C-alpha cells in the first residue's frame, strides 16, 4: 500500500494533466497513490489518461459523466483512496510534487 494518496480533480485538463501526473509518478514512485477524478471532461482527457497510465497501478482514474465540482471531485477521490493520509492538488502543477514532502 502507498504511504499516502493524492487526488487530482480534473475537468478538460488534456493540455496539462499528463505532464503533471507523470511528474508526480516520477517523484514519488511507489510512495504515493495518485487518484484522478474526471468531472466529465470533453477534451480527450480520458483517452490521454488511459493511453498513458492504464497499466500503472499507482494511478487510479475515475470518470464521472457530469461535473461534481472541485469539492465533490476531491470527496470522491478520498472515498477511493487506500491510504489514511490524504491530499489533493490541481492538475496544473501549481503545487509541485516536492511540496507534499513538507
Automatic annotation (TrEMBL):
Among the Pfam families in the record, one is Glycos_transf_2
**A biological process term (GO) from this entry:** protein N-linked glycosylation
- Where do the Glycosyltransferase 2-like domain residues begin and end? 5-99
The superkingdom of the source organism is Bacteria
Q: Which SUPFAM superfamilies does this one have?
A: Nucleotide-diphospho-sugar transferases
Q: Which PANTHER family match?
A: DOLICHYL-PHOSPHATE BETA-GLUCOSYLTRANSFERASE, GLYCOSYL TRANSFERASE
- What is the protein's name according to its record? Glycosyltransferase family 2 protein
Amino acid at each position: 500500500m502507498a504511504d499516502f494518496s493524492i487526488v487530482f480533480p480534473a475537468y478538460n485538463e488534456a493540455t496539462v494533466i499528463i505532464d503533471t501526473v507523470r511528474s508526480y509518478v516520477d517523484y514519488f514512485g511507489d510512495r504515493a497513490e495518485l487518484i484522478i477524478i474526471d468531472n466529465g471532461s470533453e477534451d480527450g482527457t480520458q483517452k490521454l489518461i488511459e493511453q498513458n497510465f492504464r497499466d500503472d497501478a499507482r494511478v487510479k482514474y475515475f470518470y464521472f459523466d457530469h461535473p461534481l465540482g472541485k469539492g465533490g471531485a476531491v470527496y470522491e477521490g478520498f472515498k477511493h483512496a487506500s491510504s489514511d493520509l490524504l491530499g489533493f492538488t490541481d492538475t496544473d502543477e501549481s503545487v509541485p510534487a516536492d511540496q507534499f514532502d513538507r
